[in-house]
Write a structure and sequence with these properties.
alpha+beta, Beta Polymerase, domain 2, four-stranded mixed beta sheet, two-stranded antiparallel ribbon
């Protein structure tokens, strides 16, 4: 029942995000416990929004997102009455910020539900990160209910290596229409 109730919020999230961000929306991805399918009764819903032409600064971006949250509040409030104390936890990034990478993306490598992805933008970001980690010999290690990454098992003292390699953006992130990748 918990999974199904949270899925109701997830299903309503995409149309509400599309209504607010419109053509600027590039990707919407659910991660964390809801993305893994392991939520608890107090789990928040973690998700990434990638959009063009975002306001500068975290607070301005959250104020823009508030319109989405206002539309979903009645549903979230109804779940509270059933003992499900969830909330929305958005991460809002531009495509330029997204291709620079984030440690947060490690959590999305295997446990993400991509709800919307114009021209597979975010799927491409994750695929390139997976390729990079594979080239480094990285491995994921379970420790109880958690996991960690050994990024470069054969690292030498004083060695420096890059995880985030900056790639060109798909043309879709730069303009309204696109015919594909720029590289």
């Amino acid at each position: 029942m918990l999974q199904e109730d949270l899925q109701k919020v997830v299903e309503k999230l995409l149309p509400e995000v599309q209504a607010v961000y419109g053509e600027r929306l590039i990707s919407l991805a659910i991660f964390g416990s809801v993305g893994r399918g392991t939520p608890g009764f107090d789990s928040d819903i973690d998700f990434l929004i990638v959009a063009r032409d975002l306001p500068t600064g975290r607070m301005k971006r959250i104020r823009e997102f508030d319109r989405v949250e206002e539309r979903l509040t009645p549903l979230i409030d109804s779940l509270q009455k059933e003992g499900i104390h969830t909330s929305l936890s958005p991460i809002i990034k531009s495509p330029e910020e997204t291709v620079q990478g984030s440690p947060l993306f490690f959590d999305m490598l295997d446990d993400v539900k991509i709800l919307f992805d114009s021209e597979a933008f975010f799927a491409g970001v994750l695929a390139r990160l997976k390729d990079r980690l594979k080239a480094l010999g990285s491995r994921r290690v379970r420790l109880g209910n958690a996991w960690y990454l050994i990024l470069k098992p054969d690292i030498k003292a004083g060695e420096v290596f890059e995880i985030w390699l900056i790639y060109p953006l798909p043309r879709a992130t730069c303009g309204k229409r696109s015919t594909g990748w720029t590289y």
